[in-house]
Amino acid sequence: MENGNNAAASPEEVRRSPAFGWAARDTSGVLSPFTFSRRKNGENDVTIKILYCGICHSDLHSVKNEWQNSVYPIVPGHEIVGVVTEVGGKVDRFKVGDHAGVGCMVNSCRSCHECAGHHENHCPGMILTYNSTDVDGTVTYGGYSDSVVVEEHFAVRFPVGMPLDRGAPLLCAGITVYSPMKRFGFDVPGKHIGVVGLGGLGHVAVKFGKAFGAKVTVISTSPSKRQEAVERLGADAFLVSKDPDEMKAAWGTMDGIINTVSAAHEVTPLLSLLKTFGQMVMVGAPEKPLEIYAFPLLLGGKSIVGSIIGGMKETQEMIDFAAEHNVTADIELIAMDYVNKAMERVAKADVRYRFVIDIGNTLSAA
């Protein structure tokens, strides 16, 4: 066309609200200041001024394109908490000034069987909070930024008194362990739950297990974590998985196991810890295939199942339960300009137990 003024606006131009954050631009994963834009608040939307955002191990995988699906520039972050600054005309669950969060997804088809059953996390059309294609054709940007616009249905209300910084990681780590614990009946008082791995997911699983009234045993390859697990986090017992005598003493004692380990590890020996018909739930995601022998599954009718986050109804339920029972993540609060160092430490598992970026006080466009 001769007249450029008649050209159709690009999808990015339709997002006319300016935004600022930190993005990775290539597989080095190095994050740096990034100016972009978000869509304006629609009639079903809430706009949230971001105050805190947790760092998930998924963020590290994504900025380095380790899953071979990253679209650069990429603004990570799906453990977002802040204050509502604008609401659309059809919004009825939030008002300006409310505390709200955004987890791992920002939309879904809303019409399939999974969505109808409140399992939006299993919807084939689920749209992730970052590095995903939004309904308007643009790429979604995450919470390492100053604001986010999201449909009301995918925002989580934070109860009054819930610590925002320590509550932020629950939007990923919390729902990841809460959902299978509820689904498989591990939330019944008196149940014996094993938690494999004591990291970002594992330490939250211990806390939810105790809040449910369960007996919780932490299973780890590191004897040095015994005191931390029992004395500080409140686990009832600690089991060194490399110790044959400790493992044998615990055979057939556990109703279920939450396996949070993302590194390659032996799974078969853990099955011996389960009671008849017990389940081991995989919530960690090792990159390489796991070697599993059939007989430990056949003998006792045991099973290995997987779980990934949870639907929006369940995520709200989880946050409300956490607020009522004082379940929060143990965090290290950092400034925005520390994020690249934090990523290096995440890669080394050198954090106890979750980094949270103080967006509200340390993100600056200057």
UniProtKB/TrEMBL annotation:
<dbReference type="GO" id="GO:0045551">
    <property type="term" value="F:cinnamyl-alcohol dehydrogenase activity"/>
</dbReference>
<protein>
    <recommendedName>
        <fullName>cinnamyl-alcohol dehydrogenase</fullName>
        <ecNumber>1.1.1.195</ecNumber>
    </recommendedName>
</protein>
<keyword id="KW-0479">Metal-binding</keyword>
<comment type="pathway">
    <text>Aromatic compound metabolism; phenylpropanoid biosynthesis.</text>
</comment>
<dbReference type="InterPro" id="IPR013154">
    <property type="entry name" value="ADH-like_N"/>
</dbReference>
<keyword id="KW-0862">Zinc</keyword>
<dbReference type="InterPro" id="IPR020843">
    <property type="entry name" value="ER"/>
</dbReference>
<keyword id="KW-0438">Lignin biosynthesis</keyword>
<dbReference type="GO" id="GO:0008270">
    <property type="term" value="F:zinc ion binding"/>
</dbReference>
<keyword id="KW-0560">Oxidoreductase</keyword>
<dbReference type="GO" id="GO:0009809">
    <property type="term" value="P:lignin biosynthetic process"/>
</dbReference>
<feature type="domain" description="Enoyl reductase (ER)">
    <location>
        <begin position="29"/>
        <end position="357"/>
    </location>
</feature>
<dbReference type="InterPro" id="IPR047109">
    <property type="entry name" value="CAD-like"/>
</dbReference>
<dbReference type="InterPro" id="IPR013149">
    <property type="entry name" value="ADH-like_C"/>
</dbReference>
<comment type="similarity">
    <text>Belongs to the zinc-containing alcohol dehydrogenase family.</text>
</comment>
<dbReference type="Pfam" id="PF08240">
    <property type="entry name" value="ADH_N"/>
</dbReference>
<dbReference type="Pfam" id="PF00107">
    <property type="entry name" value="ADH_zinc_N"/>
</dbReference>
<dbReference type="InterPro" id="IPR002328">
    <property type="entry name" value="ADH_Zn_CS"/>
</dbReference>
